[in-house]
Amino acid sequence: MKYEPHEYQKYAVEYVKSHPVAAVLLECGLGKTSITLTAVNDLLFDSFEIRKVLIIAPLRVAKNTWGAEIEKWDHLAGLRYSMAVGTEKERLAALREKADIYIVNRENVQWLVEKSGIPFDYDMVVVDELSSFKNHEAKRFRALMKVRPKVKRIVGLTGTPSSNGLMDLFAEFKLLDMGERLGRFISAYRVDYFKPDRMNGPIVYSYKPLPGAEERIYNAISDITISMRAADHLRMPELVNSRYEVSMSRAEQKKYEALKEELVLQLPEGEITAANAAALSGKLLQMANGAVYTDIGGVQAVHDRKLDALEDIIEAANGKPVLISYWFQHDLQRIMQRLSEKKVLFEKLDTDESIRRWNRKEIPAGLIHPASAGHGLNL
Fold first, then answer.
1. Which residue among 11, 72, 296, 343 has its CA within the 20 to 30 Å range from the CA of 261?
2. Is the dihedral of CA 371, 374, 376, 379 positive or negative?
3. H-helix or E-strand spanning residue 124
4. Which tens digits make up the pLDDT trace of 347-372?
5. Is the model's pLDDT at 115 over the cut of 80?
6. Tell me: the pLDDT tens digits for 40-77?
7. Strand bridging mode 207-209 / 225-228
8. Do 173 and 221 form a contact (C-beta atoms < 8 A)?
């Protein structure tokens, strides 16, 4: 496919090429994978500034997204890539192949650096989902920091650099610039930009930013950071939210209220108890969905209201693909059972092939868990 970038994508490509250290903060849908690969391609074969690239990504993104993007665009046809995922034997074989780009999942960073026996001679590293390295004490962070001085160029990609607050930025930017902008030590970073929040004597449980700290932090990292929002650059069709509400029967509602009030409920399949407020919330969510786990691990059906509504939605889609997210495993089992009964073709989107089939519109109903599709899957 011919690559016809938007102006913002052209700007981002040039930014990555002109900055040996870069944090690319692009919201989902802006094409940070294709932007990065275009810059890598130019640096490899146009300016000859690099020769060997390592891409670190979440497992499913490493397996499904980067290779697919390379194969998708005509201008990237000259890139040779090797996928270093799977068993240790498969990873070692992939790392020994002749390639321009090596793709590894983040869980294997420590293995790559400390145990693989393969020389770490990559002159460019791309960290897809930089927020995966927000913990300065994590083994993957420490392992990558050991070899960071060997790397001439590094790019960090993410849409959410500080998902849990400004404290996350310390490790992420230390990985990029080795502590040049926010400091080399977390203790100094806390003193400079934060003050203790929740404490118990000398023990500090949390910190909150000092007045003006956010602006000072952003100013400190601004020279190596490019940030773009989807709303500023993408013209998407208007999103139509259709709310399908279902109601429990009086008997079902009575069971729900009994558990809510008493934290104990006796059902035919067994007893349900909630030890605390968090457990109670989980049990009530399950009951609202239509089933609940008993204390002995069984599943007690409560109602089929949502399954009936889902059946109507799929019928109304008239053959167009429907993506269905589920939360609990018993939700998945009950959805699959209902779709099988109604002879609706479906597939759980948890393999490379199922994702490819979904993208080719061969699956009328796709089932996916939100937590497993949190980062970078091209669906």
1. 296
2. positive
3. strand 124-128
4. 998 887 888 889 888 999 999 998 87
5. yes
6. 999 999 999 999 999 999 888 888 889 989 999 999 99
7. unpaired
8. yes
Closest CA to 324 of 377, 378, 370: 370
Surface-to-core class of residue 248, CB atoms within 10 Å of its CB (0-12 exposed, 13-18 middle, 19+ buried): middle
Backbone angles phi, psi at 211, to 5 degrees: -55, 130
Backbone angles phi, psi at 207, to 5 degrees: -125, 155
Strand 291-293 to 299-301 pairing:
antiparallel
Alpha-carbon gap, residue 24 to 226, rounded angstroms:
5
Picking from 24, 15, 12, 17, the residue whose alpha carbon sits closest to that of residue 221 is: 24
Pick from 38, 69, 43: which is nearest to 123 by CA? 43
- Whether pLDDT at 376 is above 70: no
Percent of the chain as helix, strand, coil, to the nearest 5 = 45, 20, 35
Q: 30-39, 159-168, 256-265: which range is least confident on average?
A: 159-168
Q: Do residues 264 and 273 lie in contact, with contact meaning Cβ atoms separated by under 8 Å?
A: yes
Confidence bin at 182 (pLDDT 50/70/90): very high
- Give the torsion through C-alpha atoms of 255, 260, 266, 270, to 10 deg: 110
Split at pLDDT 50, 70, 90, the class of 229 is: confident
| Lookup: tokens for 122 | 């990559």
Going through 142-274 in order, the beta strands assigned E by DSSP cover 153-158, 194-196, 199-200, 203-204, 207-209, 225-228, 264-267, 270-273
